[in-house]
Design a protein that fits this description.
The chain is about 75% helix and about 0% strand. The protein has about 525 residues and is mostly helical. The strands form 2 sheets. A two-stranded antiparallel sheet has the order 1-4. Strands 2-3 form a two-stranded antiparallel sheet. Helix 5 runs antiparallel to helix 6 and helix 7 crosses helix 11. It is globular, with a radius of gyration of 23 Å.
Amino acid sequence: MDKNTVQILIAMVIYMAAVVGIGIVYAKKANKSSENYYLGGRSLGPWVTAMSAEASDMSGWLLMGLPGVAYWCGLADAAWTAIGLAIGTYFNWLIVSKRLRRYSIRANNSITLPEFFSNRFREEKKVIMTLSALFILIFFTVYAASCFVTCGKLFSTLFGLDYKVMMILGAVFVLVYTILGGFLAESASDFMQAIVMIGALSVIVVISIFKAGGIDAVAENAQSIPGFFEFFGLASPSLSEAGEQIVENGAPVFGESSKYGFLTVVSTMAWGLGYFGMPQVLLRFMAIRKESELKMSRRIAMVWVVVSLAVAVFIGIIGRQLFPAAHLTSASAESIFITLSTSFLPPIIAGFVMAGILAATISSSDSYLLIAASAFAKNIYQGVVKKNASDKQVMLMTRITLLVIAAIGIVIALDENSVIFQVVSFAWAGFGATFGPIMLLSLFWKRTTRAGAIAGMVSGAGMVFFWKLVLKPMGGIFGIYELLPAFILSAIVIVAVSLVTKKPSKEIEEDFEAVKAGNVE
């Protein structure tokens, strides 16, 4: 390694040491009970609730995936995704957060999402709990894999080392950290990481604009590429037989732009629907110490989200001007943030900015691993398999499950050509369609039945796979994002099945009315 690389490494090691330190500090408190380990004893303040929710949600996708999309094909895809996410964030905090926090307490003090759904319908046979836990295991394993891909790309790009080795080392680091501290450590470090992430984005966008000659110069370059700087058009990189963008006289070649029609806009904005079913965000609503503090959290979260998403998209646009031919595949384009950082910042500062990517990755992957492990250990192992399992046995099973999930995630992430944005979009659709409709209807429609909930989850999850693998390759109207049709189908199925099955019991209806009135006792 040269001198500059060593300085970058030192800065990142300092950062990782701070993260591990947080895990050690919270380890004792976290391991007192499974409630502390999984939900932090419902003790989060408004700032930590807001910042940790958004940091755990955005992951390395914010710093690599989203700028990569903007760099590769221009404004439209990235911007409409960002707009949908901002709208979804706002309405999730506005209409779901208070009702869910209140209802999770009323529903026998539920501390995981599967447990909430099961207790909401007063299940005797834990079908909803088991299905919810299984879907969380499936989609969060994919999500964790996307984070491991980010780790591998980051370290292999920075230090020129083998992708697979770096990916595995990154996964091991995240795993050890998650085992140490649980939800409290995760939330506290996520708060710090949210600050690092938005700071890194802001520093890079300001410096890059200066290096590019100002905003006008950036806009002029973007407008010179067909479809690149349009909300209803899409740039089309011309590819060689090897799948790389063709370069002539040092400049990348683009074909004619393609249209970005109304249906595509709607389906892209459907990313926002995913928030209603996103466990890592919903758990923060359940964990805040006071319901009254959620309003402040919403405001903090919205400022962070809007600024971060806008800056991330703009970084991709600027990158096309400053390094037009540096990244010739869509997978490589996701490293544009790294290229800008290492090119324009002093090595030691670049190291801390690179820690922003690591921050995003850690803040998400620890959430994914912990929620997935709790879904199995708490909801399947203790909830179904061994109902008399002690708290100590549940904690042991959690750690075993963490190891297994991480191992599967590593296998999925072995392909270094994986595109982070695509991996995340599939898992996001899975959660949104599986849990989003049932979350909304469980909270706001008293007539929702247990049978409707089961049918809705299964149909939503099934449609995500069917649309993605069977229908989407056909193109045309089927080329839309799978979350939109799957979410709609799930909602329709829940309503239809609920209406044709026996209405909920008196006790379930009393729970609903009590929560609606603000009574959680």
